[in-house]
Amino acid sequence: MTSTAPSAPRQSPTPDGQPTTADIARYRENLQGEIDAIALYRRLSELEDEPALKHFYARLAEIEDVHAGVWRQRLSDAGVDTSGMRVGWRNRILMAIARYFGPGVVVPTIAEREAADEAMYDDQSEALPRMPGDERSHARLFRELAGGRGIEGGAIARIEGRHRAGGGNQLRAAVLGANDGLISNLSITMGVAGAASGGHAVLIAGLAGLLAGALSMSIGEWLSVQSARELFARQVRVEREELLAVPEEEEEELALIYQSKGLDAGQARQMAKALVGGEIGRAVDTLAREELGIDPNELGGSAWVAAGTSFCLFALGALVPLLPFIVGSGTPAVVAAILISAVALYLVGGAITIVTGSSVLRTGGRQVLLGLFAAAVTYGLGTLVGRAIG
Questions:
Q1: Domain boundaries, given as residue ranges, for the chain
Q2: Cα angle 149, 152, 156; round to 5
Q3: Hey, which of 57, 124, 244, 338 would disulfide with 45, CB 3.0 to 4.6 Å?
Q4: Are 102 and 47 contacting, i.e. CB atoms less than 8 angstroms apart?
Q5: Is 179:364 a contact under the CB 8 Å cutoff?
Q6: 40 in Cβ contact with 57 (< 8 Å)
Q7: Distance (Å, rounded) from C-alpha 128 to C-alpha 67?
Q8: CATH label, 21-160, candidates 3.90.320, 1.20.1260, 1.10.443, 1.10.1240
Q9: How many CA atoms lie within 13 A of 70 on its CB side?
Q10: What is the widest separation between alpha-carbon atoms in the chain?
């Protein structure tokens, strides 16, 4: 459901068991949300070109249609005519946006609304037993779609449970890690060189900057990966608990995922039923991979490997501007540091184009200009500070 209106207050039933005025208002609110969702999902199914997602949206509309039937029946039993209820203006706007700009534009908005409503049936005793689980499943699946930033490629991969990180992202991270070390330590060494005329203090400051920066990067990377591992481990535990508590909900989610891969509804349900009804460990492993995109055996990789890699890449880049000061000092060392750093910056820019596919000359030249600009600023500031102290 994609309704965002506040829920009507709950009241005790009347003495004769008939719904109260507040109950009827709540039924109408629930039905309006389902009507909005049905119309929106059907329109997305009509507009979507990807067959798997076209079927996915159509299936969601069918599920919401079942939900709507519950509230229509409740209102009919209470003598309320619902024939005049129509799609709300907010959803009409969403449908128009999807028509003119594509379904992917409205997916993040739907994901937020589904997330806000995922628990709305948890305390409504009139709802079917499956309805709370359906709403949570829809919210979770739309989070997967929104996480792919659209309806194409990445969104399909998220629904299918593939990992977000790819070779291109890892290469980019490696290149940028070395670039951070190079530019930051070039700036430090030039700043100190401006203040100390390229003396041995430059080497000391550069080594300190190398160690401080590399440790900071590696600790940050360790915390990031370790936090992700803990989150993934918790998600896997939640999947296990949900599989034990509400196997029907997990079976429905798996069936939707398998349908998004191209299986027909019967095959998808058969596979999901066999999996959920089988050995618990295998079922949890499959749910984690297919639904969350997590490999339970890796949980996002080793935090120590990530930290060590980050340390080495940063240190490698930071070492470049220090090399001349290891064997010399003064103006010759400063000039040599600028020259070899410029070459390294150009190579870093060229390496980035492996991922981006842009011009090596343009990207490498831009990298050199930015790095030397940072070095010039810190050298100038260092010179001013050195003269003021002197």
A1: 21-160, 167-218+308-389, 227-292
A2: 90
A3: 57
A4: yes
A5: no
A6: no
A7: 8
A8: 1.20.1260
A9: 19
A10: 97
Q: Is the four-CA dihedral 375, 377, 379, 381 of positive or negative sign?
A: negative
The first and second tokens of residue 130, run together, are 């499956």
Which residue is associated with the tokens 């779609």?
145
- For residue 52, which of 265, 288, 249, 252 has the smallest C-alpha distance? 265
pLDDT, one tens digit for every residue, the chain (390 residues): 665 544 544 544 555 568 888 999 999 999 999 999 999 999 999 998 888 788 889 989 999 999 999 999 999 999 999 999 999 888 888 898 889 888 887 888 888 888 888 888 988 988 888 898 888 888 888 877 776 533 333 333 333 333 333 333 455 566 778 889 999 999 999 998 888 776 788 889 999 999 999 999 889 888 888 887 887 778 777 777 777 777 777 777 778 877 776 677 888 788 887 877 776 777 777 777 766 666 666 666 778 888 888 899 999 999 999 999 998 888 898 999 999 999 999 988 877 765 455 677 888 899 899 999 998 999 899 888 878 876
DSSP-assigned states of every residue in 66-97:
HHHHHHHHHHHHTT---TT----HHHHHHHHH
